[in-house]
Design brief:
It is built from nine helices and eight strands. The longest helix has about 35 residues. By secondary structure, the protein is α+β, with helices and mostly antiparallel strands. The protein folds into two domains: about 70 residues, no CATH class; about 150 residues, no CATH class. The strands form three sheets. The protein has a three-stranded antiparallel β-sheet with strand order 1-4-3. The relative contact order is 0.14. About 5% of the residues have low confidence.
Length: about 300
């Protein structure tokens, strides 16, 4: 498949997702997408969308040779999932160079120009990946995503708290929040307050929600940059992706409806949600790994 064709398909899948979200009167379609994103948070928006469109039940993908290195082999007859892969290309610097028409590789050239006449650009090619369900062989090796803390809020929460504080955000547990009986947490100007009576799993979810507010919205947006409904949607969706990634069972949000939001805003929100969730997930993994390594060394 050519890059141009895959780009066209990617645009079509994006349009389908946006249209489905806009028409939904409930959040099931969106929740399914975020559930998928919890497994592929570190992929680009385009590649994540392609994998979701071709195989929504995918859990772990890799290329043919990567699977071989892991002692697994693609089953006969399985079809790969096309995604984009970057490649660096050397080109001659030209004043009238057209990136679409005059892409000249210098690799292997017998008359290579001086270094100052060379420019390195990034282009994309189509590669194929396969889900683990399409392979057979040796068991998967442990990865950061299979930490011992998976599904254990009592071990995940301390890692999350450290990740929050490393962003210079103050985190404290309090008995009440401004006299409200409904609020479980609040955040503003780099300070997060969480109700202390929550159980560990609830604390984890609420801390992620408020952490997402701090990372996503900041003081200037809270003063009118985004509608309150969108800010709450983004924070709640981020918490959903993070908790699902770590195998925690939390109540699914019931108000993730974007069908009245403009198309550009939907795209911006989807990208911001998963990018922020990825940042939080990676921070938790890093802190959890540090703790585990210290325990092993003790």
């Amino acid at each position: 498949m050519k890059v141009a064709e895959l780009k066209k398909r990617c645009k079509e899948y994006t349009a389908e997702l946006i249209e489905a979200v806009k028409k939904e009167k409930n959040s099931e379609r969106l929740l399914n997408y975020f559930e998928f994103c919890s497994r592929f948070h570190n992929y680009s928006f385009g590649n994540r969308l392609l994998i979701w469109a071709y195989m929504p039940d995918a859990t772990f993908v890799a290329g043919f040779k990567t699977w071989q290195k892991m002692g697994r082999f693609v089953k006969r007859g399985e079809r790969g999932i096309p995604i984009f892969a970057p490649m660096r290309i050397k080109i001659r610097k030209k004043e009238d160079w057209d990136p679409e028409l005059d892409l000249e590789s210098l690799d292997g050239s017998d008359t290579a120009p001086h270094e100052e006449d060379v420019e390195i650009i990034t282009r994309f090619k189509v590669v194929y990946v396969f889900d683990v369900s399409q392979t057979e062989g040796e068991p998967l090796p442990e990865t950061p995503d299979t930490l011992a803390v998976q599904g254990d809020a009592s071990l995940l929460l301390p890692a999350l708290e450290k990740a929050v504080r490393k962003q210079a955000i103050e985190l404290a547990y309090v008995e009440s929040i401004g006299g409200s009986k409904k609020a479980n947490g609040c955040s503003s100007m780099g300070k997060i307050r969480i109700i202390s009576s929550l159980d560990t799993a609830q604390r984890f979810s609420v801390v992620v929600h408020e952490f997402a507010h701090e990372l996503l919205h900041g003081a200037w947006e809270r003063k009118g940059g985004l509608p309150r409904k969108i800010m709450e949607l983004e924070a709640e969706a981020t918490a959903f992706v993070v908790t699902r990634h770590f195998g925690l069972e939390t109540k699914a949000p019931t108000y993730l409806a974007l069908y009245r939001v403009e198309e550009v805003d939907i795209m911006a929100s989807l990208d911001r949600i998963v990018s922020t969730a990825s940042r939080i997930i990676e921070g938790i993994h890093k802190e959890a790994e540090i703790v585990q390594n210290l325990k092993k060394a003790a």
